[in-house]
Amino acid sequence: MRRAARSRPPSSTSAAAPGPLPDDQRRAAHTAIALLLDYPTAEAAAHRADVEDVVAGLPPDVRRPLRAFLDATASVPLRELQAAYVTTFDLKRKCSLYLSYYAAGDTRKRGAALVTFVEAFRAAGWETDGSELPDHLPTVLELSARTDGEIAGMVLDAHRDGIEVLRAALETVRSPYAHVVAALVATLPAMQSATAARFRDLVAAGPPTELVGLSDLSHLTPFATIPSLTEETRR
After folding, report:
1. For a Cys-Cys bond, which of 69, 87, 136, 220 suits 132, CB 3.0-4.6 Å?
2. Where on the phi/psi map is residue 226: left (φ > 0), alpha (ψ -120 to 50), or beta?
């Protein structure tokens, strides 16, 4: 795939795949979803048939929304799809594909959040190549597709409220990309009550904005600590 380059062997720690899907189906689903959520290009369009083949083999709860997206965009010219992508994901605060944005917004805390994502990739034995920030949702899904999913699953779970805000916002603007995020949600564990509460708060208020001189940011959603990232893992 596109962004990750192996830097060290993965951790020997093993864990069950996150969410309700078997490992092979999770990898396939997250590969397809990552490709469909990325910026549409002529190269991606050339591989559309391959994506459709992958989608056809997925469980119904994941396959149906992905099929709905593929059908909705099948006849849309590439330039029109690209323009819609930019309008949707780059110009709407609640439709960001950058997961840390939902908890940190444009505050200074986002820098620390991005470091956490970098460390998560390294703990899984991978590095991003710098073409995208590490909290970019398709990049995190690529990590899930390339690994046993333990660490990527932890990252997705830690930012589940943001994913739900993204899904709800896309549904509100009637974007076909809502189908893709709905398919992603179908691969994840059930949302916990605390996450649901944060989701409702984010829907109401939107991502935080920078307040110069603000000293207390304790109200912001904390970022997950990756327990497998130890000094031993770093060596």
Report:
1. 136
2. beta
CATH 1.10.3480 fits 23-205, yes or no: yes
Strand, helix or coil for residue 126: strand
Residue 117: which of 136, 144, 91, 92 has the closest Cα?
Answer: 136
Angle in degrees, CA 21, 166, 17, rounded to 5:
20
**pTM strictly above 0.85:** no
Which DSSP helix (H) or strand (E) runs through 27?
helix 23-37
Q: How far apart are CA 129 and CA 101, in angstroms?
A: 20
Split the chain (235 residues) into runs of 10 and give each run's mean pLDDT: 38 40 94 97 95 97 98 97 95 88 72 85 86 92 92 90 92 96 93 54 50 35 34 35
